[in-house]
């Protein structure tokens, strides 16, 4: 791994932590709040590529596990990993990898709409399909109830997917993916 990739991974882990400073929006009927941190997951995937994005999110999770309160609402420590948000949090490296992998595959013909679709499939749907059932298991509710409750995240997450796609396409020329494709 190049020094530049390590720096990008660390910067995105920090960026996702900064997004955690924005207060969460708690919902009364689901124990997982609305946060902006999934925007960082999508940006990491479509800007950094599969490997660096996944490493960035793993680094973020390790730092949170060590007790640094980087999650929205100032949460951190091992207790986070037994709470209702754990499925969502642990899905982030998988989502970032999948977004990065797919983005790398379409890089030669990159268009904003393609990245929006990639972000929705992996940054919205995949995260919900992993996070909601785990939340349901932890809260002792049905999987169906967890998935139904997670529908509340879809509009905001789709907006985040669009924002991440627009930003990624705008900064395409400085992306590490660009270097891989052109061998710089």
UniProtKB/TrEMBL annotation:
<keyword id="KW-0472">Membrane</keyword>
<dbReference type="InterPro" id="IPR003784">
    <property type="entry name" value="BioY"/>
</dbReference>
<keyword id="KW-0812">Transmembrane</keyword>
<feature type="transmembrane region" description="Helical">
    <location>
        <begin position="144"/>
        <end position="169"/>
    </location>
</feature>
<keyword id="KW-0813">Transport</keyword>
<feature type="transmembrane region" description="Helical">
    <location>
        <begin position="85"/>
        <end position="103"/>
    </location>
</feature>
<comment type="similarity">
    <text>Belongs to the BioY family.</text>
</comment>
<feature type="transmembrane region" description="Helical">
    <location>
        <begin position="30"/>
        <end position="48"/>
    </location>
</feature>
<keyword id="KW-1133">Transmembrane helix</keyword>
<feature type="transmembrane region" description="Helical">
    <location>
        <begin position="115"/>
        <end position="138"/>
    </location>
</feature>
<keyword id="KW-1003">Cell membrane</keyword>
<protein>
    <recommendedName>
        <fullName>Biotin transporter</fullName>
    </recommendedName>
</protein>
<dbReference type="Pfam" id="PF02632">
    <property type="entry name" value="BioY"/>
</dbReference>
<dbReference type="GO" id="GO:0005886">
    <property type="term" value="C:plasma membrane"/>
</dbReference>
<feature type="transmembrane region" description="Helical">
    <location>
        <begin position="55"/>
        <end position="73"/>
    </location>
</feature>
<dbReference type="GO" id="GO:0015225">
    <property type="term" value="F:biotin transmembrane transporter activity"/>
</dbReference>
